[in-house]
Amino acid sequence: MSVFSFIIGVVMVGLAIFAIEAKKLLTSVIMLSAMSLLSVILFVIMKAPDVAITEASVGAGLTTAIFLLSLRKLKRADAE
Amino acid sequence: MKRIISALIALLFFFMIVTALNSDSSDSMGIPRYGEVKLSERVSAKYIEKSVNGNEDEINFGVTVDAETGSANMVTSIVVNYRSFDTLGEVTVLFISATGVGLLLGGGRKRIGSVISVSPVVKTASRVIAPLLMVLGIYVFAHGHLTPGGGFPGGAIIAAGFLLLVVVDDEKRASKGLKILEGTMGLLYVFIGIAGLLISGSFLSNFLPTGVVGELFSAGIIPVVYSIIGLKVGAELSGIVDDFISEGGDEV
Amino acid sequence: MIQYFSMMLVAVGLYGLLSQKNLVKLIISLNIAEIGVNLFIVSIGYVEGGAAPILSSVSDNSSLLFVDPLPQALVLTSIVIGVGVTALALSLIVSVSKSRNTIDITELSSGGGDSE
User: Pfam families, from UniProt (chain A) (predicted)?
Assistant: First the structure.
């Protein structure tokens, strides 16, 4: 269990650094969504099922959708 | 240059926290080690005791009648019953943010068109899947006192079903009904609190009888409040998605 | 171990807040820091060998050791408020970009004042 959480922790920190230094905004948003999903695994390891369901549906589902829709509106405002 | 300074500040912060986590101080200024928490020194011991042992004797699943909260999920009994005022504050914060989004972005009649043309297979399939998603969301918040979940993820799943319908189809809009539903559910939550004040003397107290632990109609006021919260959060997040999709409001 | 990684995430989010110029990247860094803080708060309540805090009919409830349910209730609230703040911040960014045509904080802070 400890090796598993170590690997997931390293991948999460790597994704976070990659999300900040990426050139395109779309890449950063997808990395944020992947980080939310990996944090759900950590919540289940720490025996917190309520928090895991809430983070999975709210963080990885709706936050990503709102980011993508607003990126679309920003491109539209840029192109006019 | 700016990056190097900010990286140094972030590293300094990380080293300060690591020093605090590693300190062996036995007084309560340090954070306890991971996993070695003595629960008997915390308030949570009282909450767990009330859920597992009841007032005098043990609570058995499916047998005990009239426990104090009657819910099998301890986190639910804390969120809705013991600290229900904080949940009222959270519902208010969500309402303020949804109102802000509606003020800044809403009111448009047109919709942003989709980039790719959606084939009829996708349209028909999403019309079948989206009601199933909404039923799943209703299941999650109705059983909030028996299984993990509750009002907030149930509302988010309902909003995800709504998002699927709106992205694929070009005609469906429902913004006015959603805002009315959201406001009504918020008022209903406050009215239940006032009813608790009038009946038992304290705001948001549990005044319905708590039945057998483990059945659907049990735990007094908890499934009612979670259903209200689930519908409210679902309508709110759907309204936010709807505002982000619409376009053409009055220019500032 | 999870506590160190969650604090590393907060530090990475802090670095992003200090060094980025794009407004949307600032909101993404704020979300990264929020994920780190939520993980840390849940990890404070973990008891070694404990069970998830739900009573069920298949386990003997009086002799089990449960994990702490109070930080989990706190993090439930915090996640939902994070979504609300993100939605409002993104709508503000869209509105700013419509009226000023840029989302770069250096251009916004130094080139302003002549559109009044």
Answer: MbhD
Q: At residue B251, does pLDDT exceed 60?
A: no
Q: What is the pLDDT of residues A23-77, one digit of tens each?
A: 999 999 999 999 999 999 999 999 899 999 999 999 888 999 999 989 988 887 6
| Residues C53, C47: Cα–Cα separation, whole Å | 11
Radius of gyration of chain A (CA): 15
Is it the case that residue C34 has pLDDT exceeding 90?
A: yes
State the pLDDT at residue B154: 94
Instruction: Count how many domains chain A has.
Output: 1
CA distance B134 to B216: 19
Nearest CA in chain A to B133: A57
Quick check: A5 contacting B, CB < 8 Å?
no
- Answer for the pair B9, C18: CB distance below 8 angstroms, yes or no: yes
What mean pLDDT, rounded, does chain C reach?
87
Are B122 and B165 contacting, i.e. CB atoms less than 8 angstroms apart?
no
Closest CA to C83 of B188, A35, B190, B152: B152
Domain that holds residue A13: 1-78
User: B73-123: per-residue pLDDT in tens?
Assistant: 889 888 988 888 899 999 999 999 999 998 888 777 666 666 567 788 888
Residue recorded with tokens 């298949």: C58
- Domains, chain C, in order of start with CATH, read 2-46+67-109 (1.10.287.3510)
Q: Does the distance separating the beta carbons of C25 and A20 come in below 8 Å?
A: yes
Residues of chain B contacting residue A56, judged by C-beta atoms under 8 Å apart: 153
For chain A, give the secondary structure using H, E and C: CHHHHHHHHHHHHHHHHHHHHCCCHHHHHHHHHHHHHHHHHHHHHCCCHHHHHHHHHHHHHHHHHHHHHHHHHHHHHHHC
Which value, to the nearest 10 degrees, does the dihedral of the CA atoms of residues C88, C90, C94, C100 take?
Answer: 100
A57 to B237: CB separation less than 8 angstroms, yes or no: no
Question: Would an 8 Å CB–CB cutoff place C81 in contact with chain A?
Answer: no
The nearest alpha carbon in chain C to B7 belongs to C15
Assess contact for C17 and C29: CB atoms under 8 A: yes
